[in-house]
Amino acid sequence: MRRLLKKTLVAWLILPLLLTFGACLIHAQSLATPIPPQPGGDVKPITLSVAVRSDGTWEGEARFSPLASSEPGAWDAQREAAAIFGEYGIRYSLSEKKDGGYTFSLAGDDAREIVELALSAGHTVKRLDGPVALDVGGFVRASQTMTLTLTSNPSTGYSWEMDPQAGGALSQVNGVEMYQTALGLGVPARQVILLKAGETGPADLHLLYRRPWQAEIPLTIVISIRSDGLSLAETCAALSAPLPSSPPSDIFGIQRDEMLGQPQQPASLSSTQALPSAYDWCAGHNGCPPVRDQASCGSCWAFATVGPLEAWIKYRDEEETIDLAEQYLLSCNTEGWNCSDGGWWAHDYHWNKPTPSQAGAVLESEFPYEADDTVPCSRPYTHPHKIISWDYVGSSRGIPSVDAIKQAIYDHGPVAAAICAGSAFQNYNSGIFKTGECWQSGINHAIVLVGWNDA
Fold it and tell me: Taking the domain 266-453, which CATH number applies?
């Protein structure tokens, strides 16, 4: 721990009511989200072919295609199968090895786990971190409506959508509906898809789980589901995840009133002064680190924890680049924060956790980000940067005023913030972000604010 920040790192909680105040709102710079490097020809989607029974049990097979450039022994399909299926208690066995590929026989007791395992596969098998396709077939009646509820994580930018290239006899009759499953940042949601059939007869539903701005990224898993004697509506019901209780349950020791506090006017962080109508901290402080990509992992809390510290170090030390390890927070936290269930502010790990002598940030070069919460924490690590304290703007249970937020950025630099991210946020490009969808998605996404523009 050779370096201490000369100024206190300030982190605070910005809640959704703030984003709906008049015209004087926080401004975000328009930056393209970088697409993580793709393995190119090495990406071969896993195909799951499944039959669902009337009692919700299912069986099928999974086909692991050979990787285009694998060296002998470099790819272990059986290890991947264990990582994907083992966590869910799914029964699997190798049934065929042919042409470099592997086919596994599968059997499970709950059809809902089929989609869940596909979405979590990318957190344990890095090459599978990407879009998923879901094809469901069955019989429908003319004008019949049906509902399919699937797990989604809007804080990552991923959501379910109907394949625009598929066509067919089904149409979606509702917008994007997200219902957060718990309190926290990066937590999953349940996405409700309401469908209507055109004509009586067999119909196929084609869905994609992806980021709308990354349509060119190849699929990693393709799920094809048929049923034994079930209609399409009955199959959708068997696949559907339960809607969350209202209000969402507390899984991180976070109280609901802590997240949904009351607007307040906290004491000024410095002497009251006239603030500029537009301000970009990065422009006058040696720039800011680049925008980073959390991939499909619900780790926004780790990125927003790291971001303000990176910006301060870059300015203070006049470094061209500084990259701190989000994976350290993801793998080494003791609260159980992870990719699938999200987390909360982790500044204490840069300050005094797990113990003061072992606290501090770790460099990305020592612990690279893998968007995988199963990567082990192999302490000890080197901690070249450490904060001396952090705090909320105002209090942890209140919503600071717009002026207080501006003052915090002006006095202390970029700050961590929490917002509600649903379908509107996926389509955000630049300017003022103002949404009324917080009643569905809740406070679920962590960001870093660097300035404002009142224009």
Answer: 3.90.70.10
